[in-house]
Amino acid sequence: MKIAVDTLGSDLGSQPIVEAILNFLKENSDVEIIAFGKKEELSLLEGKCEIIDARDVVPMEAGPFEVLHLKNSSMCQAVKATKEKGYDAVISAGSTGGFLSAATLTLKLLPGIKRAALISPFPTFVKGKKMVVLDIGASNENSAEELYQFAIMGQLYSKAVFNTQEPKTYLLSNGTEDHKGSPLVQEAHKLFKERNMEGFMGNKEARNALDGTVDVLVCDGFTGNVFLKSSEGMAKWMGNMVKSAFKKNLWSKLGYLHVKKGINEISETLDYKSTGGAMLLGVNGVVVKAHGNSDAFSFKNALRVARSMVLANVNEKIKEGLAANE
Amino acid sequence: MKIAVDTLGSDLGSQPIVEAILNFLKENSDVEIIAFGKKEELSLLEGKCEIIDARDVVPMEAGPFEVLHLKNSSMCQAVKATKEKGYDAVISAGSTGGFLSAATLTLKLLPGIKRAALISPFPTFVKGKKMVVLDIGASNENSAEELYQFAIMGQLYSKAVFNTQEPKTYLLSNGTEDHKGSPLVQEAHKLFKERNMEGFMGNKEARNALDGTVDVLVCDGFTGNVFLKSSEGMAKWMGNMVKSAFKKNLWSKLGYLHVKKGINEISETLDYKSTGGAMLLGVNGVVVKAHGNSDAFSFKNALRVARSMVLANVNEKIKEGLAANE
Fold first, then answer.
1. Do residues B103 and B159 both lie within one domain?
2. Around Cβ A11, how many Cβ atoms within 10 Å?
3. Residue B117 forms beta bridges with which residues?
4. DSSP H or E segment with residue A51
5. B223 and B133 within one domain
6. How far is B190 from A9, CA to CA, in rounded Å?
């Protein structure tokens, strides 16, 4: 298995990525890495993996057109080589917009797919149970037909990666009743029902979306992004408040020692870094977008995610599944 | 000051509302309450306030048209009396959709207002600092022009109730850059700039919306609802996890005694019940929607909110402010 890695353009620079690659390779002898970036920053990788000197950086806020002019960037080179040399996956922690457009334009959409979607695994309130949400931000707006394809792709992902039997699928809405929702959600709801989508359970409110009843949560990219980031912001805030509450005095510090394990369990469940990042579904290849502020732990998880997507043959299953749902 | 109270249709029944009224009246001798509901459930209020026997209940999920056929309901009677007798405010913990349509159709929109908006105060990560978010669910979709009016109304509310000097106003978006957002947000962003809206600071991501930099957060009703409920769901989940982490063993229970105060501070900051509910801005009257599951504490806060909106003369200020922004 060959994975192309863009080492430039993330918030914390290439060093955590180098560290992640080294750790990942130690544990996964079945994977070869091809690292794209500034040669002198990748010296620790010499002898461990192939290094391609590609020195241009795609700025964090690069738009879809800007990135196409940066042909010599590590990002574009990594994507291009993935296409041309048939690598199994490509990963970047750089500009989301840039990476998504480079990947979509170069690798192309799967046959019949109208829009690619960013999908992310989410923790739920039920320990050990994961769900997926899509689209969390590849698009700014979507049609009902696109939401239908997102649902099908999300179900196939859930089956392939989490071994779900019949993934329970919901539309993210402002109420549980069938008629609730934005005009888009109302239209999608009708469409899902008309086509007798397997596992479609109706609407779910954001408040209960993580209660463990959902396997696949479907929404347009703008709403999904708001959902993801609201949850993230609140979780971070509460985590900090709990920590500072424990620092109040000697007694509370002693108390903390005794609940640390519990608190750590919470943090692990909620740590979006442990999910490694988001995957772009619907393109011809495994594309993983690691967090912009990836540390070595987070980026290693992104590498793991890519490996398991390749092993689970997610894209082949999506192709077959889409054909079956035509 | 006279406040009409609908005592039917909430999740917990009329008893918590009766208790809230009694407690509220003890502390606020300047307010008269007119209670609408089933006479026999309101016997404790006899001699304390006017009681109007109105026995029909608007179901929680009543649509806008359904509610109009329930003319004898406590909800419709309370709204109608507010209009006809010129009461200062009306409050209900019943069906949100039903109450909003009854209030809008009976009391009418303020001159020039295209859509009413539900506004809610929000805690922020900065202790003591509150912000407002609107619309959190009166509409399913909005135009850029409507978002403009929401922003102006939100600013006037923030000035009147929180004494903000120049309320810092943001659009909720999926990125901070000017060009980011759904087509609606992009259009609204341009409009806010073209009209040189005072205090308009640009886009804010959901992740940072509660960081204390925002006074007024503007969004369409569907997105606002997702934002509100994602934050609420995550806060509730983490609160429960922290509590159960403390219950693990004797030591952690002892630890809990020492951090209880800190944890309580967190819960109070986050308790949406302490905000009492949401206000409908843009209609000719003070309209407060208490939480559907209001207990006595929560409903008393809703009464407080109504009183302070009347005292702050919010509607007059909105009327003047809108005229000035024409």
1. no
2. 13
3. B281
4. strand A50-53
5. yes
6. 30
What is the rounded distance in angstroms from the CA atom of residue B321 to the CA atom of residue B76? 30
Q: CA-nearest residue of chain A to B267?
A: A238
Q: How confident is the model over A158-178, as a mean pLDDT?
A: 93
Would you call A137 and B263 a contact, using CB atoms and an 8 Å cutoff?
Answer: no
Q: Identify whether residues B52 and B124 lie together within a single domain.
A: no
Q: What is the pLDDT of residues B92-132, one digit of tens each?
A: 999 988 999 999 999 999 999 999 999 988 888 887 888 99
Chain B residue with the nearest C-alpha to that of A233: B207
Residue B77 lies in a domain: yes
Distance of residue B291 Cα from the nearest chain A Cα, in angstroms: 14
- Give the nearest chain A residue to B270 (CA atoms): A238
Residue A164 lies in a domain: yes
Crossing angle (nearest 10°) for helices A144-162 and A314-325: 130
Nearest to B231 among A172, A234, A248 (CB): A234
The answer to whether B18 and B41 are in contact (CB under 8 A) is yes
Element at A101 (helix H, strand E): helix A96-107
Could you tell me the CATH number of the domain that includes residue A8? Answer: 3.40.718.10
Answer yes or no: do B205 and A61 touch at CB < 8 A: no
Same domain, B109 and B53: yes
Of A61, A254, A255, the CB nearest to B177: A61
CB contact under 8 A, A140 and B233: no
Task: Give rounded-to-5 percent helix, strand, coil for chain A.
Answer: 50, 20, 30
Rg of chain B in Å (alpha carbons): 20
How far apart are the CA of A94 and the nearest CA of chain B, in angstroms? 15
- Sign (positive or negative) of CA dihedral A238, A244, A249, A255: positive
Q: How far is A175 from chain B (nearest CA, A)?
A: 9
**B156/B174 Cα distance (integer angstroms):** 26
User: Closest partner residue to A259 among B211, B230, B255, by Cβ?
Assistant: B255
* Percent of chain B residues topping a pLDDT of 90: 66
CA distance A250 to chain B (A): 9
Domain of A205, in residue numbers: 114-273
Residues B222 and B130 in one domain: yes
A235 contacts B239? CB cut-off 8 A: no
Note whether A241 contacts B266, CB cutoff 8 Å: yes
- On whether both A82 and A222 belong to a single domain, the answer is no
DSSP A110: P
* Domain count of the fold of chain B: 2
Taking only the tens place, the pLDDT of each residue in A83-131 is: 999 999 999 999 988 999 999 999 999 999 999 999 988 888 887 888 9
Q: What is the ipTM of this complex?
A: 0.89
Contacts of residue A239 in chain B, CB cutoff 8 Å?
238
Q: Which of B172, B219, B237, B246 to mutate to test the interface with A (most CBs of A within 10 A)?
A: B237
Q: What residues of B are in contact with residue A122 (Cβ under 8 Å)? A: none
Rounded Cα distance between B10 and B60, Å, is: 8
Interface contact flag, A225 B249, Cβ < 8 Å = no
pTM for this entry: 0.90
- Note whether A158 and A126 are same-domain residues: yes
Q: What are phi and psi of B122, to 5 degrees?
A: -130, 145
Specify which residues B131 forms β-bridges with.
B122
Which residue is closest to A249 within chain B, CA to CA? B258
Q: Tens digits of per-residue pLDDT, A239-267? A: 777 777 667 666 667 666 666 666 666 56
